[in-house]
Structure formats: C-alpha cells, structure tokens
Design goal:
TIM Barrel, 2 domains, globular
Length: 417
C-alpha cells in the first residue's frame, strides 16, 4: 500500500520575511514553527538566501550554515521534517544572486565553470551540514531557477537544453555527495511545461532527481480565463501532476506538489478556503503523489515594500500567527487524510500530448492555459472523467499504458472545445 501523502508548508518567517537570516532570532523561528505544527503539518520547505550564505564564491559563511541547522533542529523538536532550497535565486518577484555572478563579475549561472563549481560547493556544504539530521528530507537545488534561463526574465542567463541538463546533473550530484541517500530534487516554475523556448524541459523535470516537483499558480492565465471556480482553475494542480507523468520513465515516479497557493484577487480572500479544498481534493485524486506543500506559512508584513500585491496575503497564518480560513482548511484536510487516507484509483482514460520531440518538447505550449491539451483535460474533468496524460509517442506502448492502468487514449480533437 502506498505511503500517506505528506502535508507541509513553505516557511515564510513572520518577522522580516526571508531577510530574517540577516537578524536571525531562533526564538522567533520557534514561535513560527509552533504555529505551523499546530496545523498538523509534517514538513516545511526552507529558503536560505544564497547571497547571504555565500557572499563570495570561496566563502560560505559558517555562522549562516549553523543557523540553518538550528532551524532544522527546532523543526525536529516540533515533529517537522525539513527540505532545503539551496539557490535563492528567485522569491516572490525578487532575485537573489551573489555579486560574484553579476555586473563587473558577470558569469552565466548555468554554463560558467567557476559559477557552477561555486554553486556545487554551496549545495554540498548545506547538504553535509544536515546529513546526520533524521528530519532532513533532502535538498532542492533552488527555487524556480529556470526563470533565469530565458524570457520573460529581463536579464537572462541563456542556456541550451543540453547545458541545462548538465547543470542539473552536476548540482544533484553535489547534493548527493553532501548527504547520500536523501531525497534530492530540482524545481522549476511552469514555463518548463508550457513555454516552447524554455531550456529546462518536461523530460528533465520528470526524470532527473528523486521526485518530480510541480508548482501550481492559477495566475498564469488559468484563473483569468476560467474564473475562480472554473474546473480548469480548481484542477490546475492536478493537471500539472498528471502532465508530469506523461514524461516520466517510471510509471509510478513520485510527484511533489511543492508550491500551490490561493492568489488574490483572482482567488478572493472569502473564497480562499473553498479554492484550497477543491485544489487539494483534486490533487489527492492523483496516484503517486508524494506530498502537498502550501505556499506559504505566514503573510508578508505590510511594512515591507515593493512586493506584488498578491504576495502579502498568501499565508495560511497572518504575520502575528493567527490561523486564516485557508489554514483551517489545510489543517482539516491533513487531519482527514491521517485518519482515512484517500487511495486514488488508476486513471483509465488518457489524453494524448503531442509536444513534438519528447526530449525537447518544442511545442509544449499546447499544454499551456488555453491550449488544446489543457482545455481538453478541463472538459473531461468537468464531465467526471478522471483523465491521465500520455505522450503521443507512447500512446501505442501497451506495456507503458498497462503499467499506468490506462485502458484508452483519446486526443484533444476527440474531446472538442
């Protein structure tokens, strides 16, 4: 019998946001973690800020690493496991990259040998510092690092698909060297699945690392097109989980819904709990789901300037640690799943995905919001059909289909609009 789905939250400190590393106070962290543990969650995802931890290519600050370990130990005391994102990278519209990679020291993050070597040293150091902690899940290379590789980033570090693949393999190996046998992975934002010229590909996401991570945000055009209660909106996270399986070689590769949230105003505050319930219920009806990690734990303080408006209100808790309706809903779902876990049946009908060559997916925009694959998935879901997704090139592979429990394959044209 498969393991129960993990429920966690992306930890956003209530005091100072991620700038708390500059004025680290373990007592404030402990209070935050108490409020998270009270929701009945079992893990957190933690974000060291890369330039704060590695301000020079040959300097990884020992004190910062010690503080990360203190945070992990405080989480363990509260029954919380910890995943650590190494390269921050990009967070909530802000970029955090060290000065040794920019302006006068401009280096391509993905292809410059010195830059990549420095990143490997950094990830290896963080992993090694936590390797003996029983509550350490493993490393994520970085948060949505693919946004640096292509437009719409205003100053991209261009890379080819092959270069992106070599970079991922090198840094995953560094994580494994630091903490052998842990769950090390990488995570990209949804351009990987939807943007034709994005060098980080669906095949890399679904085949490299211990699990596949997907990040589901309905402000990507889904909620704008379908509304807050549209099937495509409420099923978007499930859609990404199933889309990732189309590229996986392992028919039962675990998938981690590593980020999902209720962004205002597309999801109004009074509807956040209902959206949370619908989104999580849909995701739980996907096989091989490793876990769901909500974005985020605590609201961003209004005293901090220049965030996009939606970023201030994404927390399950307020900045003074009061539980919000979405937090109550997540706590309720986590409790329900502990008491009576949902065991989804295989999805017998699959929708064929033709994105071109499966390694590069040059036509993956067919999967984007409003595209034929996404729209067909939503229509089938609205009709009560629990669709899977399969690459068109595998639609005739009877062994692959049987391993996934797929009995029938249809095309977007068969479904209509």
């Amino acid at each position: 019998m498969p393991s129960a789905v993990r429920f966690g939250v992306n930890y956003t400190p209530s005091q100072g946001w991620f700038h708390h590393w500059l004025d680290f106070e373990i007592d404030a962290v402990r209070a935050d973690l108490d409020s998270i543990a009270a929701l009945g969650l079992d893990h957190i995802r933690v974000f060291p800020i890369w330039p704060y931890f590695q301000p020079n290519r040959s300097l990884i600050r020992p004190r910062a690493v010690e503080q990360l370990v203190q945070l992990a130990d405080a989480a363990a005391e509260r029954g919380l496991d910890v995943n650590v994102d190494g390269l921050q990278g990009h967070l909530s519209s802000f970029d955090f990259v060290p000065s040794w990679t920019r302006t006068w020291h401009r280096r391509n993050l993905f292809t410059d040998p010195d830059a990549v070597s420095g990143q490997a040293d950094y990830l290896r150091t963080l992993a090694a510092a936590l390797a003996d902690r029983p509550n350490f899940i493993g490393m994520t290379i970085g948060n949505e690092i693919n946004q640096f590789a292509a437009g719409p980033h205003p100053d991209p570090d261009p890379a080819t698909t092959d270069e992106a693949g070599r970079w991922l393999r090198r840094l995953l190996a560094a994580c494994e060297e630091g903490a052998p046998g842990r769950t090390h992975l990488h995570a990209e934002y949804d351009a990987t699945w939807y943007q034709d010229d994005q060098p980080f590909t669906p095949a890399q996401a679904a085949r490299l690392g211990a699990v596949t991570a997907v990040h589901s945000w309905v402000f990507n055009g889904t909620a704008q097109r379908h509304g807050r209660t549209g099937t495509a909106t409420e099923q978007h996270a499930a859609y990404l989980v199933e889309l990732s399986k189309a590229w996986a070689d392992d028919p039962h590769r675990p998938v981690w819904l590593q980020e999902v949230g209720a962004p205002a105003p597309l999801i109004p505050a009074e509807h956040a709990a209902a959206f949370t319930r619908a989104t999580v219920d849909a995701a739980l009806d996907c096989e091989d789901l490793w876990g769901i990690t909500w974005w985020c734990s605590h609201d961003v303080s209004r005293s901090l300037a220049d965030f996009p408006e939606l970023e201030y209100s994404l927390g399950l808790l307020t900045e003074d640690r009061r539980v919000k309706p979405a937090g109550e809903e997540v706590a309720r779902i986590a409790r329900e799943q502990r008491e009576a876990p949902h065991r989804p049946a295989p999805r017998g009908i699959a929708l064929a995905v033709d994105a071109g060559d499966e390694e590069d997916a040059p036509r993956r925009s067919v999967c984007a919001p409003g595209g034929p694959v996404s729209e067909a998935f939503a229509r089938l879901s609205a009709e009560g059909v629990r669709p899977a997704l399969v690459l068109a090139g595998r639609a005739g592979d009877t062994a692959h289909l049987a391993a996934r429990g797929i009995r029938e394959v249809v095309t977007p044209a068969d479904v209509g609009t």
